[in-house]
Specification:
This protein has 780 residues and is of the alpha/beta class. It is built from 27 helices and 12 strands.
């Protein structure tokens, strides 16, 4: 099988687009990854829709249209002003509610003789309705019984039931924004549907005629009584007004009292006087502020609009001043300030300044006089108004009561005229009983069932299936918190990604079943050769397939160690994982075999003292190992085994039941002495350590290690677990070379990569991996 290793990545993180709210590439990747879930959900909903269509009862709908037309009464009554759109909407909404009302349903039952209709009293029921009725029957057993009904009560109950059925099958709605109301009725009998719809149209028109006639009749009787009362009250109010005016001597000119007219005239003059005072005060204050600046500043800084003064002398002086000043500046610039001509021009400018200042003083005095005159006139007008107001106070008291009497008389007169007009209109309308509605579409007998709508049901089932599938896929995606691609390693751990080790000897579809079946089982022993893999075979996977993705990932790990441990003659690399069973022993064995086959002096130490899976795979069980060497029972050179093909030195472990404190053994002086001797003889020392999560052996041995290689199972180890374990062990986290994703299902890997991810293009590099992959891998 040709496979590729994606270990080359840019040292800088890829910039993510911040312009779009939704990452479409990632969304499409999720859809492709979960397409089977979505298809399953759609298929399930389609099956449910087909089952519904096969069991549902066909229903027929007949429809009629009624036009609400105000113009039909234009010859019988005066046309009211055009109603606003809101009023028209309210009238149409009222008509819709009338058609839906229980009173209208009872009228249809009586007019069409439907009170004994068996199809309305006992319509075919759906499975849901049958379940509901069955539950009602069961509930009725436990409810107290009612007294028997009389024949009249039974007929009324039957009539009300049929009316309720009509209301349930009736549909009334406005046609778009028009004045047309569509009335439709659905039933399992097409003829019955047409009959009920026509009966509703006839009942509505009859109701309109009866309502108009009854309303005008009641209005005429009531208006006649009100007119008699209003006529008498209006006459009495008018006589009372005239009597009060005569008793109080109130005279008026032009509709108001003379004193009020005088006050109005004086107020107008006062407003003009106040405006003149404000204008004179503004001019005076402006010129006074100019004079207060002194002669030089008044001429130089003051700006006076030509519209504020018509003094031609001041304008001429200002023009002369500017001309002399400009000449003085030119002479001073060319000949100096002491030049005779400059001195003469300066004296002339000062003289003009004095003249302008005098002229401004005169203008200021004149504006002061104008201000005084305007203020005196305004004060005089105020005094006149106060005198007139005092004289008019008594007349105003009488006028208040007079206005009240006038308002009462006017209101009664207006009300009487209004009621008289309405009475005449009501009298005329009684002879023209015309409805303001007509049928524009007669209800016909339907030819095809209206429900269930097969196309709509199927389309809706597909849409609901897509929504449910999308929700389920989103839920699965949310719960998928495992390492899948290189980006997961970088984002969750912030560590270098070294590559993928493919799942060998198993298909991707059965990998989870195999993992569950092997959970908790002891590693394979030498006697289980047909089910496991011999040590020589397991550690030579990278050697037998040197151009495989398996070997390429381990070469990347070697390159990372060369960069991180550059300058060291001897290197101790610990291979760890967060949980047991992630394949760290297989990775350690192959990494060591790859180093040894490249000519490096390499020692592989099985330091997983509690579960030495690496040592159990040896064909011949060792007689002595790491424990005996650390305890000083045998020399370490006697316990080391050498692979004749790769020249790899292996220090196994002999399990002892009475060994309890493995962490103390790994941090003991004997272990330190062993590592010192091994560093002198080997270039690389690969140590297979216990998992970080359950035991502390790796933490105890950490001071002896130069760097760590972290092995994580693809799609099985939670990202939060690995991150938490590393955060708790900073002394290990800071020395990790990188992360290897083990047991990767290479056929499923592209589905977890975003569009543009390197994992999607592994087939492009298939020619770089031409050697056959090994057929098995041991979980250890």
């Amino acid at each position: 099988m040709h496979q590729k290793n994606f270990t080359f990545q840019s040292a800088l993180p890829q910039a993510e687009s911040q312009d779009s709210f939704i990452d479409l590439d990632r969304l499409m990747a999720v859809v492709v990854r979960r397409i089977r879930t979505i298809i399953f959900a759609v298929a399930a909903f389609v099956i449910l829709a087909v089952a519904y269509l096969l069991t549902a009862t066909s229903s027929y709908t007949s429809m009629t249209q009624i036009l609400l037309d105000e113009s039909m009464t234009k010859y019988a009554e005066d046309q009211p002003p055009a109603a606003s759109s809101q009023q028209a909407d309210m009238e149409i909404a009222s008509a819709v509610e009338i058609l839906k009302s229980n009173e209208m349903a009872l009228r249809v039952v009586d007019q069409a003789g439907l009170s004994d209709n068996a199809k309305l009293l006992n319509p075919p029921q759906s499975p849901a309705a049958l379940l509901k009725s069955g539950a009602g029957l069961i509930a009725s057993i436990f409810t107290p019984g009612r007294p028997p009904m009389t024949p009249e009560e039974q007929r009324e109950a039957q009539r009300q039931k049929v009316a309720a059925v009509l209301q349930d099958g009736l549909k009334v709605e406005r046609v778009t924004r028009s004045s047309v109301v569509a009335v439709s009725f659905s039933s399992t009998d097409k003829l019955l549907a047409a009959k009920v719809t026509r009966a509703y149209a006839d009942a509505y028109l009859t109701d309109q005629l009866n309502a108009n006639f009854d309303a005008t009749e009641r209005a005429s009787v009531w208006l006649q009584e009100r007119l008699n009362d209003l006529r008498q009250r209006a006459q009495e109010a008018s006589l009372e007004v005239e009597k009060y005016k005569a008793d109080n001597g109130l005279t008026s000119t032009g509709g108001e009292l003379m004193s009020e007219q005088q006050i109005s005239d004086l107020n107008k003059q006062l407003i003009i006087a106040q405006a003149d005072t404000a204008s004179a005060s503004a001019r005076y204050n402006q010129y006074k502020s100019i004079i207060d600046q002194g002669p030089d500043n008044a001429v130089r800084n003051a700006t006076i609009s030509s519209s504020q003064t018509d003094n031609s002398v001041l304008q001429d002086l200002k023009t002369r001043y500017l001309a002399v000043e400009k000449r003085e500046q030119d002479v001073t610039q060319n000949f100096g300030a002491d030049h005779p001509q400059a001195v003469a021009l300066r004296a002339e400018r000062q003289d003009i300044t004095r003249q302008i200042y005098q002229e401004l003083q005169q203008l200021t005095a004149s504006y002061k006089n104008e201000l005084d005159v305007a203020q005196s006139r305004a004060e005089s007008l105020r005094e006149s108004i106060d005198k007139v107001v005092g004289k008019n106070s008594e007349a105003n008291k009488s006028l208040v009561h007079l206005n009240e009497l006038n308002q009462k008389a006017t209101a009664l007169k207006t009300l009487y005229e209004s009621y008289l007009g309405r009475f005449e209109e009501a009298t005329q309308q009684r002879s023209f009983p015309i409805a303001k509605a007509r049928v524009i579409s007669v209800a016909g007998v339907p030819t095809a069932p209206s429900s269930p709508k097969k196309t709509l049901v199927m389309a809706l089932s597909v849409i609901l299936g897509l929504m449910a599938g999308a929700g389920l896929a989103a839920f699965q995606e949310f719960r998928d918190r495992f390492f899948r691609v290189e980006a997961d390693v970088r984002s969750a751990l912030g560590l270098k990604f070294l590559g993928y080790l493919p799942l060998l000897g198993q298909q991707g579809k059965t990998r989870k079943k195999a993992r569950k079946a092997n959970a908790g089982a002891e590693p394979a022993t030498a006697g289980e050769a047909e089910n496991g893999v011999a040590f020589e075979r397991m550690m030579r996977i990278s050697v037998e397939a040197p151009r495989s993705i398996f070997a390429e990932t381990l070469r990347n790990a070697k390159l990372a160690s060369d960069v991180m441990l550059q300058g060291r003659a001897d290197r101790v690399i610990g291979v760890v994982s967060a949980l047991p069973g992630e394949g760290k022993s297989t990775t350690a064995a192959n990494f060591a075999a790859l180093l040894a086959s490249s000519g490096k002096r390499t020692l592989l130490i099985d330091a997983d003292l509690r579960n030495p899976g690496l040592s159990r795979t040896l064909k011949s069980p060792p007689q002595a190992g790491l424990i005996e060497v650390v305890l000083g029972e045998v020399p370490w050179t006697n316990a080391v085994k050498v692979d004749p093909r790769t020249k790899l030195a292996i220090l196994p472990v002999v399990v002892r039941d009475q060994l309890l404190h493995t962490s103390e053994l790994l941090s003991s002086q004997g272990m330190q002495h062993l590592m010192e001797n091994a560093r002198k003889m080997f270039d690389y020392i690969i140590v297979d350590l216990a998992p970080l999560g359950p035991v502390i052996d790796a933490k105890a041995f950490a001071p002896q290690v130069d760097a760590f290689l972290l092995v994580t199972e693809w799609g099985a180890t939670p990202t939060n677990l690995v991150r938490d374990v590393l955060e708790q062990e900073p002394q290990i986290n800071s020395r990790i070379l990188g992360v290897i994703l083990n047991k990767t299902d290479m056929s499923e890997l592209p589905r977890y990569s975003d569009f543009g991810g390197t994992e999607r293009y592994r087939q492009k590099y298939v020619s770089y991996y031409t050697e056959a992959q090994p057929r098995a891998q041991v979980d250890a």
